[in-house]
Amino acid sequence: KCYYGSWNADSSPNVILIDFKELIPQKNDIKKMLWDDYKIDSLNADWGFEEPMLWSWSVGMLLSFIEKELPEKKIVGQFHEWLSGFAVLFLKNCGSNIKTVFTTHATMLGRTIAGSGEDLYNILDSINPEERAYRYGVQDKFLAERASANKADIFTTVSEITGIEAEKILLRKPDVILNNGLTIKSFPTIEETSIRHHITKTMIREFLTFYFFPYYTFDLEHNLTFFIVGRYEYKNKGIDVMIKTLGKLNEELKKENSERTVSVFFWIPMGVKGVNVELLENKNSYRHIKTYVQSNSQDILDKIILDVINSKTPGVKTLFTRDFLKNLEKDLVMFKRQGNPPISTHNVIGAENDPLLNELQAQGLDNREDDKVKVILYPVYLTGADGLLDLPYYDALAGSHLGIFPSYYEPWGYTPVEAAALGVASITTDLSGFGRFIEKKVTRKKNALKGIYVLKRFNKSEEQFINDLLKTMLDFVNLSHEDRVKNKLIAKNLAALTDWKYFVQNYITAHNMAFDKKS
Question: I want to staple 391 with a disulfide (CB 3.0 to 4.6 A). Which of 112, 396, 449, 456 is the partner?
Answer without folding.
Answer: 396
